[in-house]
Amino acid sequence: MNAPTTDFSPWSPEFLADPYPAYARLRAAGRVHYFEPTDQWLIPHHADVSALLRDRRLGRTYLHRFTHEEFGRQAPPAAHEPFHVLNDNGMLDLEAPTHTRIRRLVSKAFTPRTVEQLKPYVEELADRLVRALVAEGGGDLATRVAEPLPVAVIAQMLGIPESDRDQLRPWSADICGMYELNPSEETAARAVRASLEFSAYLRELIAARREKPGDDLISGLIAAHDEGDSLSEQEMISTCVLLLNAGHEATVNATVNGWYALFRHPEQLAALRRDPARIVPTAVEELMRYDTPLQLFERWVLDDIEIDGTVIPRGSEIALLFGSANHDPTVFTAPAELNLTRTENPHISFSSGIHYCIGAALARAELSASLSALLRLAPRMRLAAEPERKPNFVIRGLRELVVEV
């Protein structure tokens, strides 16, 4: 077993500013490292992360096989129950056979055709948001473009009225706080409150759609059946919250992280501006890789596994370091360089295996639309102030990205 490393410091401002050199030292030091502050095993190499995402000896949950006591873990505090009821019934935190059933039913409503039909709306909305930014001479790219675009798109899909959409981002932010390492009780209290409020809102909306179905995703989830199976009300609520949270957090942070990277690489930005039609598709993939919006994904060890001679016993938790895997030089040529025309780019920013992001195609459409609109309508956009990073590690982003046009 490798000794615990001091390179991994997820609460340090210096590490949060640029974790990638520390990841390089982690990879050089070995394939697996125990990190005592979070009681997790860190996995930094692309090959291992990719393989373990598909390894059924690991799971997002263990409750389909063990009780908390049998697994050597404590049940969450009773006060946190509303968050866990909401979170634990979403397919991201379930395993087969329940995960298989829910994903199959959700896929009946969330189809490639659904995404294709949304593209004109996504592109028109991106144009409108960018035109407003340009009309004001600039502003915070995060709150003016990066956040409202994916939130509005998911809300449009779900059929959430425009008058109610302002609540969605605060609810999502409070719930997602629980995905950071060792969240505080204050964070948990906010997540519980948001879980209760969001669930109550969706319960009313689902009831309304049962009475009067529309052509929205909630109506589709209600109608989805397969061999007598259907989604329970809690599964529908958890699915809607998951689609909102996962469906916009990655897009928001990929947008602001990506533009910050572009501003720091003016030669790449200049090439993109010269030939956007050709470069935008590969640029989207490279920006997702270069500064990964979701840095870490956790798995429980359901059966003992061995990595490079180290046995990780059942009951342990592993932390798959997506950000490190996306900078592994055994997979990516010159990974520390931003290369918008990179064609060999097997990044894992959308995960892999059975939990591969169901909304990956929609996220790509949103990122392409906002990137294209900004290149076309704000061709001289520049950074107005050095941004400050959010004090988060798992979900990596900026507090704001102020630009001038």
Brief summary:
The protein has helices spanning 13-17, 20-29, 46-53, 81-88, 98-109, 112-135, 141-146, 148-158, 168-176, 185-211, 217-223, 233-264, 266-274, 276-290, 322-325, 360-377; strands at 33-35, 40-43, 58-59, 138-140, 296-301, 305-307, 310-312, 317-321, 382-383, 402-404.
Provide structural commentary.
- The chain has 405 residues and is of the alpha+beta class.
- The protein is 51% helix and 8% strand.
- It has 16 helices and ten strands.
Structural class: alpha+beta
CATH-defined topology:
Cytochrome p450
Distance between the termini: 52 Å
Name the helicity range: 40-55%
Instruction: Please report the total strand number as a whole number.
Output: 10
The count of helical stretches stands at 16
Count of distinct structural domains: 1
What is the string of SSEs from the N terminus onward? HHEEHEHHHEHHHHHHHHEEEEHHEE
The CATH architecture is Orthogonal Bundle
Taken as a percent bin, the fraction of beta residues is 5-15%
CATH homology-level superfamily: Cytochrome P450
* Rg value: 21 Å
Strand order of the largest sheet: 1-2-8-5-3
Unreliable segments (pLDDT under 50, ≥5 consecutive)? none
- Name the shape in a single word: globular
> Could you describe the largest sheet, including whether it forms a barrel?
5 strands, mixed
CATH C-level class is: Mainly Alpha
Q: Overall pLDDT, averaged?
A: 94
